């Protein structure tokens, strides 16, 4: 078993050099901003969703939660396919 491989130290030095971040005036590390981009298709889908605070939607969500917990929730694959097709045809 070789403990001191010649390339291992060079690789460690290269790794350590990349970890050095630029430090600003206040001694803090400059960080980039996180960014989220929502596609126009996703925005269109959001517009089609019911009002989340409506009583009808709350009832529907409660019923679905109950079915999922009991293991009785089933969605026909035909309905899923229809929704996908109608969405993609309307683009």
Helix tally equals 4
Computed Rg: 27 Å
- Shape verdict: elongated
Structural domain tally: 1
Oligomer: single chain
Low-confidence sequence ranges: none
Q: Pairing-aware structural class of the strands and helices? A: mainly alpha
Kindly state the percentage of residues in helix.
40-55%
Strand content: under 5%
Q: What's the rounded overall pLDDT mean?
A: 79
What does this structure look like?
It is a single chain. This protein is mostly helical. The chain has one domain (6-29, 38-89). It is 55% helix and 0% strand. The protein is built from four helices and no strands. The longest helix has 16 residues, at 55-70. The protein is elongated and about 65 Å long. The chain starts with 5 loop residues before the first helix and ends with a helix. The mean pLDDT is 79.
């Amino acid at each position: 078993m070789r403990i001191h491989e010649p390339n291992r130290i060079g690789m460690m030095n290269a790794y350590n050099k990349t970890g050095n971040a630029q430090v600003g005036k206040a001694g803090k590390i400059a960080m980039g901003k996180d960014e989220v981009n929502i596609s126009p298709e996703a925005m269109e889908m959001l517009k089609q969703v019911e009002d989340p605070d409506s009583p009808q939607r709350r009832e529907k969500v409660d019923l679905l939660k109950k079915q999922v917990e009991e293991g009785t929730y089933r969605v026909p694959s035909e309905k899923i396919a229809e929704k996908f097709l109608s969405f993609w045809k309307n683009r």
